[in-house]
Model the fold of this input.
Amino acid sequence: MSRADELFIQNCRDILANGVWDTDQQVRPRWEDGAAAHTVKKFGIVNRYDLREEFPVQTIRRMAFISAVDELLWIWQKKSNNVHDLGSHIWDAWADETGSIGKAYGYQLGVKHRYAEGEFDQVDRVLFELKHNPASRRIMTNIYNHHDLSEMALYPCAYSMTFNVSGRTLNAVLNQRSQDMLTANGWNVMQYAALLCMMAQVSGLEAGELVHVIADAHIYDRHVPVVEEIIARAPYPAPKLWIDPEVRDFYAFTKDSLKLEGYQFHALDTAIPVAV
Done:
């Protein structure tokens, strides 16, 4: 059984059995027919994935790994906030007529700040510290910039990464304020596991643990039947991650630099309602 499957099943069962519904509250998200999109949630879920043991990809449903990596590179490598730079259409609903999502995600990572060693944006600062000061306990990014929230089409969900080197092992903590378990959990886990592997490789380190901290882990009301169907399935073993060993510059990675080998998965034929 994939570790990603194991934790997803465990989390969803806990949310469905012991979670708190928000049906007595006013909520922002809406379904396409205009109805309020209510959720059942658990507060403060923490999951750990050891990338030395396996790469965390769900098998109880097909995960669009290449599209997930493409979005990650759009944010972390291109530092873009324009959907025209993205291969998929997952952000189209949040974009304006020019394709911009405002001062969100990639925009925040690309803003330069002054340090004693010179000017760096957040990504370049992480890369610099991992190579030149790996003992630092200050290697982190944060895109939840209160000053710019009013100019973001969507407040950041996965908003902070903290990198920490133990010996020659690179570990990281992903902090997420909100997680739609059905549509985003598996996606974010494999994305940031891939980021950790890329950062480790270009820094001459081994990828270790990804710790995922979710403040509000929820399942939407109309997603419940789909979640119940998925978590009843028998998982397959985790696939292997192949990452191009020749790439030593973070900005040289492409979506084709990473592949899943031996990936078995269950098809998902049921349409998933979208809340916006």
